[in-house]
Write a structure and sequence with these properties.
The chain is mostly helical. It is built from 23 helices and no strands. Helix 11 (183-204) runs parallel beside helix 13 and helix 18 packs across helix 21 (365-398). The longest helix is centred in the last third of the chain and has 36 residues, at 431-466.
Amino acid sequence: MNTIYEFLIKNVFKIVVIITIYFPLEDFFLKFIPAPEVVITVLRLIPEFFLYGLLACVVAHKISTGKPLRKTPIDIAIVAFFLAASVSIAINQADLFESIANLRTNFRYLSVYYILVNIDISSRQVSNILKIIVLMGLIQAVISSVQFFLPDTIDKLLFARIGTKAALGEFKANASFGTLFDPTNLSSFLLVTDTIFLSNIYLNDQKNSLIPNWKNLAIMLTFLFGIFATKKRAALLIALLIHLIVLSRARGTRKVGKFIWVSLISLLLFSVISAYFLDWNIAQELGLLPYFTEIFTEEYWNHTSSSSRGFLIYKICTALVSSFSLFGFGPTADAVEQGIKSSLALSSTNLDQINWTFYVLDDPYWFAILGYFGIVGLLFYWLVFFRFYQSSKFLTNAVDFISYKSLGLAFSNITILFFLYAFVERILRLRACSFYFWTIAGLTINSIYMYQQNQKYMSWQSNKKEDPI
């Protein structure tokens, strides 16, 4: 037992790196294991519970060596959030086990954050793991691009694990999913890896150009097309927005303004040329026209407002106002549903709509959190994001090491990405995305700690040389 413990402690960072590589390929690996779905589900839980055990080893090692656990900027916000969740469970008499299960899915990889914060990681290791994450994203982007041009039957046969949404085809026709569970997981994962890539290339470009060299431009376009191929409109919109945010922060808003005008003119010319030359029957078969135009149709907005995300958002907000519930209706879907029904005078039609639309509750993620934990819980959750953004800005602006600055810029953009995208997608409940978010967060806070320790050491060395004794 001691031998296993010592091995884990010596190789904590390497183990995290291995899991970082494994996650995007997990469903593809499990595809080849001939076992019942129950067994596969257990196998998918192993990384999560292994990380809990690894965190316990790190904490035990800290205690045994007499070293304190490192404080982080979000500790108070996390404690306050879980206290608010406990109040919500208590006052709403929500089912305890279901509530804990829901909390777990929202914070399942908080463990990797505290693991990384409490070990020593060099700037070289930070740089290497970021390169690995980008490489894994690029592999998925290439697979996504290839899948877009293959028949769905071939995609499922080659890449989909039995029992997943990808295998069942529970998404738009011809949408890519890489080797992940479904297009939603893939698009979110590509957003994270693309943001890291963009932050790195623009920060390290000595020429300060708006358009990177041909190699990086090819990678950038591969990421964008990989996201486009998932047919997730919100993801593509967020990706384009993140590109502009990264450019603005790395090159200044004036240069980016000119770049936007050139891009819009180019897009207009491309549209005119496409309208003249492209065979629209082919475009229709590939799903390009509905992909771009559906969101502007009256039918789309009528659907979302009457029986989808928009409908639930409206009902959650009005029910909370009507009930004056600051702590929400309880952290389970059933509790939120009952809370809405008991707070509002609903027609039989609305009751039916709620009954068959609640499966999309978690899609508008922040509004789901609002329903679960109320405005108090939501504000504490947002405080976590705000504290992370402050920390990443410090790492970008105050630290000299280029690997740390690149990480800081990437994580500040990732916090923006996650915050915005969570209004329309359950991004923090998606396993791969959640893992990478908390991994990058842990690396960021660790880098600040290591940098400050290094500065103290350099200052001590300087004072020692000046000491005449």
